[in-house]
Amino acid sequence: MKWIAAIALSLPLFLVQVLPASSQDLKKWNAQIAQHKRWLDTLGPDGKRYWIALDESRRPHRLYLGEGFFRADYNSQERFVETYSIYIAGHPEKYMLMDLFDARTRKHVGEFGWGGFKLYRRQLAETK
């Protein structure tokens, strides 16, 4: 009898369907992505030059970083890369994998992926 009750009570857990996102969620996500875009535009080629270009032709995307990025402190760099990743993923709770390159030297200087934000020390020292 206890087994029947346990099975009957656990069935709803297995039958729960994922509900589609509501229009309110989509509006909220679009507003967050638009806010990220405005902030990233101030850091782009015509702003503080954190980033120069994005190569979306291959995976992971290649983000070419400018001199403004290398002058910033580590926390600002990490926030920038994380926000850029969210922006190109198009969803505030998802991230896009990216390789980071120095726009001047075209050298691979870091990455953003499963392990989080990483800058390679040797290349970082060469760019300063």
Number of helices: 5
- Span of the ends, CA to CA: 72 Å
Biggest sheet details: 5 strands, mixed
Class derived from helix and strand content: alpha+beta
Task: Give me the Rg, rounded.
Answer: 21 Å
The oligomeric state is single chain
Largest beta sheet: strand ordering: 1-2-3-4-5
The SSE order reads HHEEHHEEEH
Characterize the structure shown.
With 128 residues, the chain is α+β, with helices and mostly antiparallel strands. The protein has a domain at 45-128. Helix content is 48%, strand content 20%. The chain is built from 5 helices and 5 strands. It has helices at residues 2-15, 23-42, 67-71, 74-89, 121-127; strands spanning 51-55, 61-65, 98-102, 108-113, 116-119. The chain has a 5-stranded mixed beta sheet. Helix 2 (23-42) packs across helix 4 (74-89). The longest helix is centred in the first third of the chain and has 20 residues, at 23-42.
